[in-house]
What we know:
Number of strands: 10
Largest sheet: 8 strands, antiparallel, barrel
Structural class: mainly beta
Oligomer: single chain
Strand content: over 45%
Radius of gyration: 27 Å
Amino acid sequence: MTSAWRVSVRLACVVALAGCASGVVSEPAQSPPLDAPADMAPDFVAVIHSPDWKVSIAGKRVMLLGPQGTRELALESNDVLFDGRNVVATDALGRVEVRVTPRLCQDATSGAWLPYTARVTVDRGQPALGCARDP
């Protein structure tokens, strides 16, 4: 090893240690923002294609319009989650669960951009994906 190389390495170590000894404290990492605002509206309309379902949540009223007609369901819960809302409603025929997150979604039929994505599960069947918007 050459003398100049040793001096360069020692100088680099001294500079690095001097930064540690200076008492400089780095800023703590900021936590990421939540995906969903805590005040996300409890009322919305979810539109699903294939199968064609439309779920409207307005207060305590939940309406499901689907291939078998219209069902009015009793609202069991409408909970704010860390990344959106989860709504559960029931009637004599079964249960509907709607999960909505505030992520842009392009409607498959109209091509319009809606502010929310939605996942709807009807009577514990396969979840179907679609979009949601304010009522």
